[in-house]
């Protein structure tokens, strides 16, 4: 079953494109990453999923409810963390949470808040005005979990958290997911997707350029080759390296090639020339993502 499904979801702010033709299908039980650079359209998409802004066109269904009319009851089933949150500065973290719990008709003591706060090393007895950005984020995360939602929608949840906290936060996400929660979160940090997500959608300039399993991206047949020849200088033309990779690069004495297949032919070609050093490795997730972004950019020109 789909936890989130969108069909050709499009949002224009006046004449300015927010996103266009977004097709998402997040299955129940998944941890799904929504990754893209600044201004790509992540928050715009999420705000539409949360019924905070109206689409220009397209369809959305959340927890199997089409959002053709406003669905107030859905909010009780979703934990939403916006990218920026503001609280009354003179309240303590605990008071904020008690207030939010009352709004949801629940008692704070009946929630797992203490356990989660401990996991995130969060002191809820302090006033909001004394909290750092990371602590405000933690407060936001605790608030989204108060009502034990079926679906978590988190907009850049780790911004402001230090690496140690990010680690604890992802442990928490994994634990929540094991207990049956579907999690959809946006980020621009690749390693986060690699650590926890089952699948990922890559968004750029308001459009999804690929959706796939993280493991599939990692299993790419591509190989990156770094070679330093005995002869110095840029030898791309002299050695005909562009025949194997038209985007071959040269920097600080090293030639960089990315090849898809027939690696034996590439090695045969390279080894005609005296080699000082060579390394062959699987591209990192980061390199693969960068390739998507660059490819799309190239296509637009
Ligand atoms: N309220 C608005 N009015 C006009 N344009 C907007 C508005 N909100 C977003 N946009 C534009 O829509 C596009 C997508 O922005 P959005 O905030 O959704 O991206 P994002 O991926 O969440 O970026 P970031 O990672 O920086 O938060 C951008 O070009 C942005 O300038």
Automatic annotation (TrEMBL):
CDD domains: ABC_DR_subfamily_A, PIN_VapC-like
SUPFAM superfamilies recorded: P-loop containing nucleoside triphosphate hydrolases (SSF52540)
ABC transporter domain residues: 4-230
Pfam family of the protein (one): ABC_tran
Keywords: ATP-binding, Nucleotide-binding, Transport
GO molecular function: ATP binding; ATP hydrolysis activity
InterPro entries registered for this protein in UniProt: AAA+_ATPase, ABC_transporter-like_ATP-bd, ABC_transporter_ATP-binding, P-loop_NTPase
Family as reported in the entry's similarity comment: Belongs to the ABC transporter superfamily.
Protein name, UniProt field: ABC transporter ATP-binding protein
Organism the protein comes from: Chengkuizengella marina
């Amino acid at each position: 079953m789909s936890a989130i499904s969108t069909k050709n979801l499009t949002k224009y702010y006046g004449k300015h494109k927010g996103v266009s033709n977004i097709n998402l299908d997040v299955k129940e039980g998944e941890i799904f990453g929504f990754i893209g650079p600044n201004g790509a359209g992540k928050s715009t998409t999420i705000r539409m999923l949360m019924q905070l802004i109206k689409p220009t066109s397209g369809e959305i269904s959340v927890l199997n409810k089409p959002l053709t009319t406003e669905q107030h009851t859905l909010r009780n089933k979703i934990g939403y963390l916006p990218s920026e949150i503001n609280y009354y500065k003179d309240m303590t973290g605990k008071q904020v949470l008690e207030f939010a719990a009352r709004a949801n008709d629940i008692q704070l003591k009946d929630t797992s808040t203490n356990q989660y706060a401990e996991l995130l090393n969060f002191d809820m007895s302090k006033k909001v005005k004394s909290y750092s950005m990371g602590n405000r984020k933690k407060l936001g995360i605790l608030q989204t979990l108060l009502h034990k939602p079926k679906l978590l929608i988190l907009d850049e949840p780790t911004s402001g958290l230090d690496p140690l906290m990010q680690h604890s936060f992802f442990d928490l996400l994994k634990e929540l997911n094991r207990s049956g929660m579907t999690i959809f979160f946006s980020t621009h940090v690749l390693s986060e997707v690699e650590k926890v997500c089952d699948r990922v959608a890559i968004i750029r300039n308001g459009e999804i350029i690929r959706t796939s399993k993280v493991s599939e991206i990692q299993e790419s047949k591509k190989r990156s080759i770094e070679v330093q020849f005995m002869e110095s200088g840029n030898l791309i033309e002299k050695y005909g390296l562009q025949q194997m990779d038209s985007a071959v690069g040269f920097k600080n004495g090293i030639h960089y090639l990315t090849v898809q297949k027939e690696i034996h032919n590439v090695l045969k070609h390279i080894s005609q020339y005296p080699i000082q050093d060579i390394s062959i490795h699987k591209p990192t997730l980061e390199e693969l993502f960068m390739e998507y972004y660059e490819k799309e950019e190239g296509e637009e020109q």
